[in-house]
Amino acid sequence: MSHAVSIQVQLVRRPSGWPVPEDFRTTEVTYGDLAPGQVRVANAFVSVDPYMRGRMNDVKSYAPPYALGETMTGGAVGRVVETTVEDLPVGTVVLHQHGWRDVAQEDAGTFRAVAEVAGAPLSLHLGILGMTGLTGYVGLTAIARIQPGDTVFVSGAAGAVGTAAGQIARLLGASRVVGSAGSAEKVALLTKRYGYDAALNYRDAPVREQLPALVPGGVDVFFDNVGGDHLEAALDAMNPGGRIALCGAIAGYNSTERTPGPDNLSNAITRGLTLQGFTLGGYGHLAPEFAEHMTGWFADGRIAYDETVVDGIENAVDALLGMMRGENTGKMVVAIGS
Amino acid sequence: MSHAVSIQVQLVRRPSGWPVPEDFRTTEVTYGDLAPGQVRVANAFVSVDPYMRGRMNDVKSYAPPYALGETMTGGAVGRVVETTVEDLPVGTVVLHQHGWRDVAQEDAGTFRAVAEVAGAPLSLHLGILGMTGLTGYVGLTAIARIQPGDTVFVSGAAGAVGTAAGQIARLLGASRVVGSAGSAEKVALLTKRYGYDAALNYRDAPVREQLPALVPGGVDVFFDNVGGDHLEAALDAMNPGGRIALCGAIAGYNSTERTPGPDNLSNAITRGLTLQGFTLGGYGHLAPEFAEHMTGWFADGRIAYDETVVDGIENAVDALLGMMRGENTGKMVVAIGS
């Protein structure tokens, strides 16, 4: 038993528009000896995710807004370094939601042991093997009800969820997978590394102008991480009966003014489209089914991934902002003590 | 056997914005003797419906656009006056889609005999007992998956589909039904005649300002006939997991400019909302189930209805325009030879 100092990042003010450093503070918490039932975990990686921006606002949602003055919660993976319980011995790899801190000390029930996967760094449990991959899987299956032979369009395709969604779509039988990204390098990555049939750079020309040529047979499933112009372009390209999984709208997360929605939403009526928003809140029951698929695909070498790693918990805010500016390829994570 | 002159209204030009008389022509067609397998029907009532405006445009949709130079198709009800087939004898009441004409002469297979309902004028087979009622039923059940205890908001609630949807929602177990309409008279009708718990006049103040006070527990199901500001207001008021049936967007049907969509569509993500557009095309299989419910409710005196009747097939265009301006209460129909 011993004391431990934990460096933690807290939200202290609700951002207006883009978050700024003054909206956060970095603080030190000193943990005492473990209480019965507690474990102490040294985090290896902490996740930064687009949904976190939404929770900084004080609005009605499935997930409550972040409390001011408390440490930012979110996904993290680490190893047990001290324990009081038998089923989480020292050295166990655990996932948890205690977020932006280098050391977490909490009740054992708030940590979940995960099986290490051969060849996979621990950070993948925050990414393609974890919430990120599950988000792609849930969006395509439970929300968009993907069918073999579907043409699938993914916006923000080079992001963490996007790279997962495109590959999962293919593995679930999509006949054509098309993505969008914000640089020539990312576009090349989509087709060369992630198996996309075609990709567009949304900075080259309006998506509405570029998309039709890439989906000559129309779009059956749209997995939307962006919203805005991407949703508008997709609504024009959807086939009758098409399904749209609304996963993110990063285009509007940091705007202080209300941004108008798609000008062609009435296509949903004439074409019988379904738009369904989701967060993982209601779909945890699909995690075992996803894990079975994904560990098999991963073991077979059928899953490519990239990560963008930022070092040091004190840089978590920068990592989040960089991710929202699109500076990452694949999952953005913060490495601790590496 | 005999010849017959049929007065018919045809679309001759695709409207830009609001249709004008010059977009149509009234013409006389002379039918010869019946060919084997044909029947001749004298229409009693012809339907004018919001979806017709959409089909005047040349756009991708479940339903093909109206052909120029051909008679406007659409729902109509009449009686067989001459026949060549045994199962449709003279006097049979039939429904068909031959539309804006006073006399129809076509293959017997394009007409469907309907059972007359005691106490119901034939026009109701175009309204609450027919497509209009079915639209409300499909939107609430197959699309919005209404549950007992739901709070339901209906836009355009004094229109044909709206009056049906509000009553059906109540009969299917909604605990609170709220509607919008465009005049004080219609608002009064909603609460006094159609069983709405509360109603708002969208001309009094922005819907976004008026709605929250009428739905203190939030909205579970939104049946949208209007789009625009109504959809925006509803998205703000929806409860997590809420379902939106997109049935019509009459607010935008006649605009020549693209109108921006709701500025709060990202609520669909954070609240896990589903927006599903529909037309009746894919839901004909629910007609028998609907008919069983509705004839029972009607016989029990639990269904109120209004109709706005315009006389003469030559006034069909005026009837359509009046309906789109909101001059009708309940179903707008054109009476023939009354």
TrEMBL record, chains A, B:
<keyword id="KW-0560">Oxidoreductase</keyword>
<dbReference type="GO" id="GO:0016628">
    <property type="term" value="F:oxidoreductase activity, acting on the CH-CH group of donors, NAD or NADP as acceptor"/>
</dbReference>
<feature type="domain" description="Enoyl reductase (ER)">
    <location>
        <begin position="19"/>
        <end position="334"/>
    </location>
</feature>
<dbReference type="Pfam" id="PF16884">
    <property type="entry name" value="ADH_N_2"/>
</dbReference>
<protein>
    <submittedName>
        <fullName>Putative oxidoreductase YncB</fullName>
    </submittedName>
</protein>
<dbReference type="Pfam" id="PF00107">
    <property type="entry name" value="ADH_zinc_N"/>
</dbReference>
<dbReference type="InterPro" id="IPR020843">
    <property type="entry name" value="ER"/>
</dbReference>
<dbReference type="InterPro" id="IPR041694">
    <property type="entry name" value="ADH_N_2"/>
</dbReference>
<dbReference type="InterPro" id="IPR045010">
    <property type="entry name" value="MDR_fam"/>
</dbReference>
<dbReference type="InterPro" id="IPR036291">
    <property type="entry name" value="NAD(P)-bd_dom_sf"/>
</dbReference>
<dbReference type="InterPro" id="IPR013149">
    <property type="entry name" value="ADH-like_C"/>
</dbReference>
<dbReference type="InterPro" id="IPR011032">
    <property type="entry name" value="GroES-like_sf"/>
</dbReference>
